[in-house]
Design goal:
The complex is a heterodimer of chains A (282) and B (271). With 282 residues, chain A is mostly helical. Chain A has a single domain, classed as Orthogonal Bundle (MetI-like fold). Helices cover 72% and strands 1% of the residues of chain A. Chain A has a two-stranded antiparallel ribbon with strand order 1-2. The longest helix of chain A is centred in the N-terminal third of the chain and has 31 residues, at 55-85. Chain A is globular and about 75 Å long. The two termini of chain A are 18 Å apart. Chain B is mainly alpha-helical. The chains are: A mainly alpha (282), B mainly alpha (271). The interface between A and B is large, with 100 and 100 residues.
Amino acid sequence: MWLQAPSVVPLALWMTVPLALTIYFSFRHYSLLTPEARGFARLQNYRFLWEDPAFLPAIRNTLVLIGSVLVITVGLGTLLAALYERRFFGRNAATLLVIAPFFVMPTVSALVWKNMILHPVYGLLALALGKLGLAPIDWFGAYPMLALIIIISWEWLPFAFLILFTSLQSLDAEQREAAQIDGANSIQFFLHITIPHLRRAMSVVVMIETIFLLSLFAEIYTTTSGGPGTATTNLAYLVYSLGLQQFDVGIASAGGILAVVLANFAAFFLVRLLAGGLKGGH
Amino acid sequence: MGRPSLRTWVLGLLGWLAAILLFFPIFWMTITAFKTEQGAYQPDLFFIPTLQSFREVFARSRYGGFALNSICISCGSTVLCFLLAIPAAYRMAFFPTRHTQSTLLWMLSTKMMPAVGVLLPVYLLFRSAGLLDSIRGLILIDTLINLPVCVWMTYTYFCEIPAAILEAARVDGAGFWSEIWHVLAPMALPGMSSTALLLIVLSWNEAFWSLNLTSAQAAPLTVFIASYSSPEGLFWAKLSAASLLAVAPILVMGWLTQKQLVSGLTLGAIK
């Protein structure tokens, strides 16, 4: 047992202590600005959070962001994986290019996209639209959420692609031949063989991305700071802003608990999936 | 077979088109890094390359210091991860009990906690412990985040080693660390080195905790680049040069881990 302790003990502490503190803080009056006003707050922090004008937009933004990025990355990822499953010239080299965005640190992705590609005056898209005689688009002014969704989808599409592509390679050769003998065309094959085969990989992508995207912060912090107004404030940014900018630990903790609850919905299913995958060690 | 049909050509063309589109922002950043600040606003593909922006990045900021912080944090946490994970993986792979599977599963489930749920307590604990803006603090966080991945991957590599080899070593009188060092490490080396690369990549790019827990002293490159958000972000050549230096080595490492990437990132759900 002692051999497992160096891994188990730190993880056990990491799993319990901070979370217990978040729960505790969420029921306390705890503002770093007014240290004298401490005490049990009952559900007041949760009520203040609910009444915060940024709260409902933040929930909506969180769901819109996660939902759109999931649809885009899983959708395009599936198409791309099906395309890359066919052999073509230089496929391995092209795969490297496709997965590259995943390794770019979030702050770099956000700034390069914001300043060099989506910039309304000098950005490449503005220049391209100008060449076509169209008016440039002020992405971060007029459609800040859409701009963020584009950037984050670009970061996560390689992840979805790689998982789905790997999963496709385990598609049985026999199944493939059987479908060919039955005279299935490409589209039938894609709909009736590829998609059902990918169901498990798709759920893995959805759950892992959901957990990560619930804490999505760096891209918002570097591009919009949650604005304009609350247009791009998500739950993670709201918790940061309540806790580390307005120094109200109690209310921010209530927001943190909400994020944990949301994550648990997704995690519940992921753990069940993993339990299936772990079978067959020594 | 072997006759490249029109279909193959079209599919290949589509595949490459997608690859080029996805890679384009990185390509654009790379060439902009070699332009002058004035030239950066011209969408030219052909220009006289210059290292001026790189020189300015180094002259105007402690770039080396931030890079060193990134290196210390990612390598430090990776080493610590392995030190903690190897004994557990050894025990689980060679002496499994009926609790092994559930322990492993529990470890993996710790990855399901959204960082934002524990931001406040971690910040306050770090403040009381004097760990805010310290390299030690970030090493600790990254180790905790990556430990489950490290245990799991090391476990799978150990599982591939026949137990008979270990017994032979034990008959020859090898102790625990000597078994690890002389028998297991050489056999699991290829897998473990890509695990190490993956862990370095993950902690190098970690931004949530770095942005919230560091400011000047211990800030890694993710935080330094964030300081280019407006108005400095409009100095495209310098932004690109700083970004390229931060991204290029990690991109190469990421490419090298490609095989282990999927099972590492999905914690074995997809192999």
